[in-house]
Amino acid sequence: MNTPLEIGAGTNAITNQFQKKYEMYRPSSVSKNKNIQLRQGEIVQGKILKIYSQKEAEVRLPIGDLKAEFSGKLKPGDTLFFKVDSVSPSLVLKIYAVSQKIAGRILDNKEILRILDLPDEDIFNEIIEFSKSKNLVISKIDVLNVYNGLKLIDSKSFENLTLSDIFKIISFFIDYSIELNNNSFEKLKGNILGAKFLEERIEKLVEFLNTLPKTKAIESIFNFFEKLEQSSNSEKILFFNINSKETNFYSLLTDLFEKSGLPPIQEQLLQNSVKPLLNAIEGQLILNLYAALNYTPFFFLIPYLDKKKWRFYQLILKKRKSKNNNKTSAFNFKISLNSGHYDSTTIKGEDIESILDLEIFAESPEFRNVLNENLEELKSIIIQNNFLPNKIEFLQNDEFKLNIANDLSEPTKSNISVVV
What we know:
- The protein is of the alpha+beta class.
- The chain has helices spanning 10-23, 109-115, 122-134, 140-150, 163-175, 182-193, 195-209, 216-229, 233-237, 249-258, 264-293, 365-383, and strands at residues 43-53, 56-61, 64-69, 79-86, 92-99, 101-102, 105-106, 137-139, 298-306, 309-319, 331-337, 345-350, 399-402, 416-419.
- Strands 3-2-1-4-5-8 form a six-stranded antiparallel sheet.
- Helix 2 (109-115) packs across helix 3 and helix 5 crosses helix 6.
- Residues 1-32, 338-344 and 385-420 have low confidence and may be disordered.
């Protein structure tokens, strides 16, 4: 079974191809830079052989050893990826990326920062550490994009998030060409972080509701979870749906947010607990709407009972470009459980048909059982393309715009605006 392309793999997939390609070359003798067989914009792997000045060096490239102009703090022996900026009248190379492991040696963060010509500061060190866990090859522009993304978001949006969580969210926006701003960050962060984010906030909400007077809106939430235990698999799979014509978790949370019937201080605390969940539900709908139009992933957060507590697993579906129009083979999938002591259980596969043939290895028997019970119905829902039964029916509050490219290698010129 082939491993599907995962979130955040865009840049890494490209640079890994370069690395594999150029490791096979044997460089020829030193060239005098005549008839350079390189193209402007091409990415090439090179090794610094000799430094002539702060702006000129001899570089071993796949086509031979050449003199080149560059800017940075490179040293003899450095191996990295360059982007060809110019070939005439002289060869000009720009620092593009570096592999975190060269000749069997893991580069430390300071060395990576020096090679990429980035500031040796704590925040850049943290971004490099995150990038190491995400990609084998670390791109300078990706590091700078994460750093610049941090400056676009109000610090209050980072409350209760680790640096790794923040970097993960910003990287998602970058990888899928989504416009990053405060509103879009708030709407989508819950779905990007997945099951753990949702589970923690629902637990805190339930704990808080247990300390409050049992108003009608609060009783409705507890009744909903009691009913959910007896609900069908399809109702649980569509737990995060929004449907204005029937009672659901989203409508109950909206009533709780708007009509709690509590004193002002308690009402504000309650709204602070409810708002992230409303955003997460709206965020899933937004991401799935764009997934229907583009090659970004579909997200589903699905509840199951584990020792009388509600936990969630996340199903991520990514469309594959294929001439085969069979709906059952149109997606890669990834099912992950990212919560509590069952952290990092992940099941990957290719073709929706194979979703029924999974061998499930998970510490949680409840998780195994709920997957086995749900997979048949889950596949049926997927095949029917029942991703967006309600489209965007929650028009309220803030307005923001998301720009999505069809594919990283084939950017689209179309922009789509959504009011939420």
